[in-house]
Task: structure prediction
Amino acid sequence: MSNALTEMNRQLEEIKLPVSNDARLELRQLLSDKIAAWLERSPEHLFTVFYQLDLGEEQVSDIFKKKMGKELSDGLADMVINRQIQRLETYQNYIKEKEL
Result:
């Protein structure tokens, strides 16, 4: 599980902002499939990953209350992508400021 998180972080660091719609949709599909599998096999590990990604517990809970099946895994994937893009933007802004 932590290897998947490390790999995802590595891949996200290579992404150039802004993220194209095609890249976002492709990432969403891959991540949604992985999340669906984790929900079936090991949901506690998935929640550990969500915690490590600093996803809001209330937001995650809200998605679980409102969505099911594919919509659930897609919604969670969108949350992860949005959070990682936010982290990437913050990181890139920090690097820019540091260079000045």
Remarks:
- The chain has a mean pLDDT of 85.
- The radius of gyration is 14 Å.
- The chain is about 85% helix and 0% strand.
